[in-house]
Hints:
single chain, elongated
Amino acid sequence: xxxxxxxxxxxxxxxxxxxxxxxxxxxxxxxxxxxxxxxxxxxxxxxxxxxxxxxxxxxxxxxxxxxxxxxxxxxxxxxxxxxxxxxxxxxxxxxxxxxxxxxxxxxxxxxxxxxxxxxxxxxxxxxxxxxxxxxxxxxxxx
Length: 142
């Protein structure tokens, strides 16, 4: 019973975090590569076009995959990298809390990382890979 509740809780967490990343990614998508590149350049991010492309792809395509539970460890790391960049390039000077603070960015990055490595059984990763590993482990212990 506990495992089912845990898996549902992980799914809810993945969907919530994924939706937030998707919302931010769609804003960047609407702004376009040139607009996001200009924003990255304006705040001094190195390789602004590559950085803009990274953000748009990770926060849109990656968010959908995260919600579905695909490539969770990779996406957890990519989201964490995204948020570390946001902390240092955008939010650090505002401090942890208050207007423009990095509290939400910190929590999103940490949650994405944790969920990426603990995504639960209600995920494509578990469906495609986890079941095979579980069967193999059962056969080895039997």
